Amino acid sequence: MIKxxxxxxxxxxxxxxHGQQIDDxxxxxxxxxxxxxxxxxxxxxxxxxxxxxxxxxxNRSQVTVIQIGDSHVQGPYFxxxxxxxxxxxxxxxxxxxxxxxxxxxxxxxxxxKFKASGDWKAVRNVKSNGGDDVGLSGINLETTDSxxxxxxNLGETLEDLTEIKIVSPHxxxxxxxxxxxxxxxxxxxxxxxxxxxxxxxxxxxAAQFHTSVQKIQQVNGMNNANLRAGQxxxxxxxxxxxxxxxxxxxxxxxxxxxxxxxxxxxxxxxYLRPAQKESKYLLDGLLLSTGKKGVNFHGIxxxxxxxxxxxxxxRFFDQIAALNPDLIIISLGTNESFYDPYTEEKxxxxxxxxxxxxxxxxxxGSVLLTSPPPSxxxxxxxxxxxxxxxxxxxxFANLNxxxxxxxxxxxxxSNAMPYWYDANLTSSDKIHFLEKGYQLQALLLxxxxxxxxxxxxx
Length: 458
Hints:
Elements: H1 2-17, H2 22-25, E1 39-40, H3 46-57, E2 62-69, H4 71-74, H5 77-90, E3 92-94, E4 96-98, E5 112-116, E6 121-124, E7 139-143, E8 150-154, E9 163-167, E10 174-179, E11 185-195, H6 202-208, H7 213-220, E12 232-244, E13 250-252, E14 260-262, E15 269-274, E16 281-282, E17 285-289, E18 294-301, H8 307-311, H9 314-322, E19 327-331, H10 344-360, E20 367-370, E21 376-377, E22 381-382, H11 384-399, E23 403-405, H12 407-410, H13 417-422, H14 435-457
Parallel strand pairs: 2-18, 2-19, 3-18, 19-20, 20-23
Antiparallel strand pairs: 1-23, 4-17, 5-8, 6-7, 7-16, 8-15, 9-14, 9-17, 10-13, 10-15, 11-12, 21-22
Helix pairs in contact: 5-14, 10-11
């Protein structure tokens, strides 16, 4: 009997090390514990389920779902597969919230890509002392450059989009346009100007600016190393920026209210531009809609963030409420488990503040909390803190009438992280997951939501 068990265990290890399909991964006992795959407190989602039923019966055109989280949600795959699961069943009302993360200097979506000219200030909520103007995105992104140009590239999978809504405290300061040429923004290397001083030589200057003699010669078209005092040189900085490569003409898109713009069919490239000269342009994101019946899904995440980081910014909660969510999925807790010192009491206090901010704005309906996925500290130590926090989050959800999905236990707790890594489902940091890992987690979450919805309809 013992020999048979050992053989089975090693067989499973071999299987996951060679990569399984999603259907097989769902039933792999080293990765998934199906006994935890259910929503706790599903009755609190009855209002949401009623709206889904109305959507199915044709008595409602759309429902809105918002997922708020950390890097697991800022990364594209976890919210993407939840969105696809819901929209495949109930219809696609839109891609929802998108944000120019790459303009803000961080990772972003794969189906909508941005680049921009001009100098943009970007401050994540986790890096702010509370003095920055942070709204829906969790990131303060603004520029004072009245000549900026932001290119929006919509992926081929977004062909059904018909509307874009600008989210900003001052949306009238922006306008959306089409250009008569494509790919107007090109990345070019940047240089700084240097005036040669007496005694300078190329090797000395190159060392001063952390570059090479060859690169200085190349930028300045020099065939030799001769210099003279007072001569002006261009010094390569090693960085690059987007510049507008050619003159072009723009056609502004139509908007009735200066906030929502109609997208012509088969358009995949647009430009966000200043509507007029202003002292500042602050952008919280864009909302992409198909105008069709179905689920509108907004995934909002910030790398490294915690409940307490969102709590600092009333405008974040104001803009969440303005989206009129029918279901809010909260996927936080990972970063709390990595902060030292941090305590369960701090976590509960921060969740309480988060809840009160929602209640203040009338968001007392359907809330679904998910516990953090498994993780390891320093790539080697099992993160038992995440396991403890997952339990506390379940208790908090029960006491505060939130539904709860124990992603941590469904994923066999942090003890299983070595197996998730061996199965090529996580990145090397053993905190984040690869696409298939997030796909697996999203699939099981959506399946649990559908099971509770089926129970509601009985």
